[in-house]
Amino acid sequence: MKLIIIKLAFVFLPALYVVSAIPWKVKSSAITFKIKNAGMTVDGSFTGLEADINFNPLKPEEASIKASVNSKSVNTGNNMRDEHLSKPEYFDVAKFPKITLQSSKIEKTGPITYKGTFKLTVKNVTKEVIIPFTFMKIPEKTEFKGSFSINRKDYGVGESSMTLSDNATISLDIIVTE
User: How is 8-53 classified by DSSP, letter by letter?
Assistant: First the structure.
């Protein structure tokens, strides 16, 4: 009888793996942004990603992804610009130390492509964003990768400007392990 139960466990255990969400730990990440300023593209990044990722590529509707970055980590390669972006009219890092992202729905759109509906919170303003992304698991690495655009003024990041674009593109590249 015990042998039958053990054999059944080996038959059904893989099916349980397929049904439930898989917790992933962040191994490394690149959270970057691009925005036009005075006709030039300014590149920047954030570090300090903290994430709670539960995702099964075969059952994306059961996924739950919650992530945050440290707003104080904004880095454009220019210390004066970074200090300016830390002030209240931009990221107000003293008052709002975290930028957060919380999934509300994830759908499969192709073999490795997905569309996630997320709530993005910047400076205590929460807006829904759609993030198309890929999830690839190969022997060398397991990676979430996506990109989306936002209107910075929707979040109170800066004011109207003749030189600074309203739209910023954010790119996510997150390497994970089980």
Answer: HHHHHHHHHHHHS--EEEEEEEEEEEEEEETTEEEEEEE---EEEE
pTM for this entry: 0.87
Q: Given pLDDT bands bounded at 50, 70 and 90, which one contains residue 53? A: very high
- Backbone torsions φ then ψ of 80, nearest 5 degrees: -65, -40
Distance CA 122, CA 99 (A): 5
Q: Tell me: the pLDDT tens digits for 118-152?
A: 999 999 999 999 999 999 999 999 999 999 999 99
Structural domains in the chain, sorted by start: 21-177 (2.40.128.110)
* Residue 169 bridge partners (DSSP): 34, 149
Residue pair 75/47 in contact by the 8 Å Cβ criterion: yes
CA 147/CA 173 separation, integer angstroms: 9
3-state helix, strand, coil in the chain (%, to 5): 20, 55, 25
d(CA 58, CA 51) in angstroms, rounded, equals 21
